[in-house]
Design goal:
By secondary structure, the protein is mostly helical. Helices cover 75% and strands 2% of the residues.
C-alpha cells in the first residue's frame, strides 16, 4: 500500500514528529537532566546539613539516596519500556524528575530524602532506556550518538555545578530556590519529548521504510528513525532468549559500570567538602568542582568515538582508570596545592569512563533488545553498588576524622575496575 504524501491528512500533520533532528534534540535535552539534579546538591550540601542539623553520614544520604534508587528504578525500566514504549516512559521520567526536584526543597527532612527517591527513580528510567533507544533508532551511529548524549549529560552537570552557588546568592541565600530552579530544565526536556510520544503512537502497527512504502508490522519488528530495519526480536533465538544475568561478559560490563559510577558519585558527593576541609573557600571549591565537570565533557565525547572504531577497547580502559587513580592520588597527597590539576585528571577520566561504560553496553549487545536488557542489568547492579560509595566515604570520614582512608579505598576500587574492565572490553557479544 502506497503511503500518503507528506502534507495529506493525519500523515501530513504528524510527519514532522518523525524527523531525526527532533529526536536528537529531545535526546540532548533529556541528557542534560541525567546528572543535573545530583550535581546541584554537592555545592550546597553544607548549607543543607546545617539547616537540618545532619551529621556527615546523614549528609551523605542526600546524595546516596538518589543513587540507590538509580539502581532500584533500573530494575523496572526495561519492563516499563516494553509495556508502554520508551518514548512515553522517558516523558514520564522527566515529569517525575521535575516533581522530585520540587519535593526535596519542602521544609522537611523527609521531603528532602523522599524527593531524592523520586529524582533517583526518574534518572534511572532515563539511564536505562536511552541506550536501547539509540541502538534501535541509530543502529549505524550508536557510538557517535552515545558520545553526544553522554557529553550532553556531563555538560548539564557542569552548568548546574557552576551555577548552584551563584543562584543561591541571587535568591538571597536560599538553597531551596537554587535547587528548585532546575525543575525548569526537566520541564523543557519533557516538552521536547511530547512530539516523540505522539509519533510513537501514530506509528503503532505501521512503520515507514526508507523508500516511502508503508509496512504493517507487529511487535516482532521495528524500523529505526533513519530507515534501517531492526529485527531484534523477529525470530526468537537462543542468544535473544538467554538471560543476560547468566552471561559472564554481561557481569563484567556491569561491574565496570558500577565501579566507575562509585568513584564518580563519591566525587559528586564529597569533592567540594574535601577541598573546604583542607582550608579552601566554599566558592573556590564550587568553581573547581564545576571545572571538574567541564573537563568530563572532553572524555565523554572522545572516548565513545574512539571505542566505536576499535575492536577491543582495552587501551581505553587502561587510560580512563589510570587518569582517575592519578587524580585521587593527588587528592590524597596535595589536595589544595594541585586542586586544578587533580580536577582535570579526574574529569577527563570520569567522563571517559562513563562514556566507555555506556558504549560497552551498546557494543557488547547484538541487538536493541539485548542492549535494553544489558542496560537494565548494568545500571541496576551498578548503581546499587555506586550508592554505597558516598555513604561509605562519609561514614569512614566521620569515624577517622580524615579523608585518607576513604580515598585509599577508592584507589582500590580503581584497581578492581581496571581488572574487570579489561575483560569487559574484549571483542565479544552478550
Amino acid at each position: 500500500m502506497e503511503a500518503l504524501p507528506v502534507g495529506h491528512g493525519t500523515a501530513g500533520r504528524r510527519a514532522w514528529f518523525a524527523h531525526p533532528l527532533l529526536l536528537i534534540a529531545a535526546i540532548v535535552l533529556a541528557s542534560l537532566n541525567m546528572r543535573a539534579a545530583l550535581a546541584s546538591v554537592a555545592p550546597l550540601v553544607g548549607e543543607i546539613a546545617a539547616d537540618f542539623g545532619l551529621s556527615s553520614t546523614a549528609s551523605s544520604l542526600v546524595t546516596s539516596v538518589p543513587v540507590l534508587f538509580l539502581g532500584a528504578g533500573a530494575i523496572v525500566a526495561p519492563w516499563l519500556g516494553r509495556r508502554f514504549g520508551p518514548e512515553a516512559v522517558l516523558l514520564a521520567a522527566l515529569v517525575l524528575l521535575g516533581a522530585g526536584t520540587l519535593v526535596r526543597v519542602l521544609p522537611s527532612v523527609y521531603a528532602l530524602y523522599g524527593g531524592g527517591v523520586l529524582v533517583g527513580t526518574a534518572i534511572a528510567l532515563l539511564n536505562v532506556l536511552m541506550p536501547g533507544l539509540i541502538k534501535r533508532d541509530f543502529p549505524d551511529r550508536a557510538a557517535s550518538m552515545t558520545s553526544l548524549y553522554t557529553g550532553a549529560m556531563i555538560a548539564g552537570a557542569t552548568l548546574v555545578a557552576a551555577a548552584s552557588v551563584p543562584l543561591e546568592e541571587a535568591f538571597g541565600g536560599s538553597w531551596e530556590a537554587s535547587l528548585a530552579f532546575w525543575s525548569l530544565l526537566a520541564a523543557l526536556a519533557a516538552t521536547a519529548w511530547l512530539p516523540q510520544v505522539l509519533h510513537a503512537r501514530d506509528r503503532t502497527g505501521r512503520v515507514r521504510n526508507g523508500v516511502g512504502r508503508t509496512e504493517h508490522v507487529g511487535r516482532t519488528g521495528q524500523v529505526s528513525r533513519t530507515g534501517h530495519e531492526v529485527r531484534a526480536a523477529a525470530v526468537p533465538s537462543a542468544p535473544a532468549t538467554r538471560s543476560v544475568w547468566r552471561s559472564a561478559l554481561a557481569w563484567q560490563v556491569t561491574l565496570f559500570m558500577g565501579m566507575q559510577s562509585l568513584w564518580t558519585y563519591v566525587l559528586i558527593a564529597w569533592m567540594p567538602t574535601i577541598f573546604t576541609d583542607h582550608g579552601m573557600s566554599r566558592s573556590t571549591a564550587g568553581v573547581i568542582f564545576a571545572f571538574n565537570n567541564l573537563t568530563q565533557v572532553a572524555g565523554a565525547f572522545a572516548v565513545p568515538l574512539l571505542a566505536g572504531r576499535m575492536r577491543s577497547q582495552r587501551p581505553l580502559v587502561v587510560l580512563v582508570t589510570t587518569l582517575v587513580a592519578a587524580g585521587y592520588a593527588g587528592l590524597l597527597t596535595a589536595p589544595v596545592q594541585g586542586a586544578w590539576l587533580w580536577a582535570a585528571l579526574l574529569g577527563v577520566g570520569q567522563g571517559g569512563a562513563v562514556g566507555l561504560a555506556l558504549t560497552l553496553i551498546v557494543l557488547r549487545a547484538g541487538d536493541a533488545v539485548t542492549a535494553s536488557r544489558l542496560s537494565g542489568m548494568a545500571q541496576t547492579v551498578g548503581y546499587l553498588l555506586a550508592a554505597a560509595g558516598p555513604l561509605a566515604a562519609g561514614a569512614v570520614h566521620q569515624a577517622t576524622g580524615s579523608w585518607t582512608v576513604p580515598i585509599v579505598l577508592v584507589l582500590c576500587v580503581c584497581a578492581a575496575a581496571l581488572g574487570v574492565g579489561l575483560l569487559a572490553a574484549r571483542d565479544r557479544k552478550v
